[in-house]
Write a structure and sequence with these properties.
The chain has a single domain, classed as 434 Repressor (Amino-terminal Domain) (Orthogonal Bundle), CATH 1.10.260. It has four helices and no strands.
């Protein structure tokens, strides 16, 4: 499991998984039901990206998000 501490790290994970699955940004956008601009900005780590749409992209790629509090085992 990889720790994600900021939007740039999240974007990098999304980009890497998209490329691993051999998807273009256009294909991912269509599959996730979001715009191509959103995918580009998400992969670039834009901090104001909408969380609901970001989660839709993650689900499309088969990725999930786990939240841990301070002191929780990672």
């Amino acid at each position: 499991m990889q720790s994600i501490n900021d939007s740039t790290a999240l974007g990098a994970v999304i980009r890497a998984e998209r490329k691993r699955q051999k998807l273009t940004q256009e294909q991912l956008a269509a599959l996730a039901g979001v715009g191509i601009r959103f995918v580009r900005e998400l992969e670039q780590g834009k901090e104001s990206c909408r969380i609901g749409l970001a989660l839709a992209v993650l689900r499309t790629l088969g990725l999930s998000v786990n939240v841990a509090g301070r002191g929780d085992d990672a």
